[in-house]
Amino acid sequence: MPDTISNQETLSSNKYAYQKRSSNKCFFEQDNYNIFVGSWNVGGVVPPEDLEMEDWLDTGNPADIYVLGFQEIVPLNAGNVLASENRKISMRWNNIIRHALNKAILTQAQDDKKGEYQKMHQTKDQISAEYRKSKDNFQCIISKQMVGVFISAWVRSDIHQHIQHPNVSCVGCGIMGCLGNKGSVSVRFCLHDTSFCFVCSHLASGGKEGDERHRNADAAEILSRTRFPRGPSRNLPQKILDHDRVIWLGDLNYRINLPEATTRSLVHKKEWNTLLKNDQLKAEFMKGHVFQGWHEGVIEFAPTYKYYPNSGIYYGCHQKKRGEKRRAPAWQF
């Protein structure tokens, strides 16, 4: 079983350290890479071009590799479900990511070279153009959209040459069991001699009793149906669990098995342990119904679902608006 991680956190960061070891008769070499993995359900809202993501991506302490997964980058209506990709929206997200990852580095470079360009009469634009060619820039390895699910992987330019065999695999689990309003987009690549697979998913929704079984079934379908090319030498891993390192991210949609009022009260008191004892994902995992052999990070943050846009207020905390569904807080990521 490969090292596997399932992450429920949204709008915050997790950095995973990857270690590559190689040796010969004369020396032992060790390379360390930090990998940032993040997930965000954006609720079908088109991002403004000046959206700032630096705090989320922790660009003041940059990782070496970023893998970002999004859900509902388009509204999940019939027109969008039948059209798998919207290149305009995915390009906008990639432009925002590119700007955020490179902004802090560029600012630091300009500060470092301030005296030099004043002395040499270089302009800021010239410094920017120069630094865009330097080794510390981030480049997109691969990105892919399936309806609302979007994943984008980025690496520092100086390790880009060590990335091989980037590929994607899409699995639709939505309407009729095959459309892409629910499902996954997975990416894989090899760094040196180690294969990585990142699974960005949006599993079945629903807060009724028994809906967790639909989410379990979606996860099983994703594991069963995801396939990657075997590569020119025909020895590359094809299935998710064949890879050396696997990380699953996304909107898993599992709820908390408590009355809504009780859930809200416990959230208000920050009783995370009590809430987690009633978390559907943990319960299904303990029963052996889903994600057997996987490991989840420690949960020490508030439930991620569902807030009013641009606020820290959960749906239903105030007087219910007309036509608004009840949304009990839950860890869905």
TrEMBL record:
The keyword Hydrolase applies. Residues 31-330 form the Inositol polyphosphate-related phosphatase domain. GO terms for biological process: phosphatidylinositol dephosphorylation. InterPro entries: Endo/exonu/phosph_ase_sf, IP5P_plant, IPPc. Pfam families: Exo_endo_phos2. GO terms for molecular function: inositol-polyphosphate 5-phosphatase activity; phosphatidylinositol-3,4,5-trisphosphate 5-phosphatase activity; phosphatidylinositol-4,5-bisphosphate 5-phosphatase activity. Keywords: Hydrolase. The keyword Manganese does not apply. Belongs to the inositol polyphosphate 5-phosphatase family. PANTHER family: TYPE IV INOSITOL POLYPHOSPHATE 5-PHOSPHATASE 9, TYPE IV INOSITOL POLYPHOSPHATE 5-PHOSPHATASE 9-LIKE. This is Inositol polyphosphate-related phosphatase domain-containing protein. It comes from Tripterygium wilfordii (Thunder God vine). The lineage of its organism: Eukaryota, Viridiplantae, Streptophyta, Embryophyta, Tracheophyta.
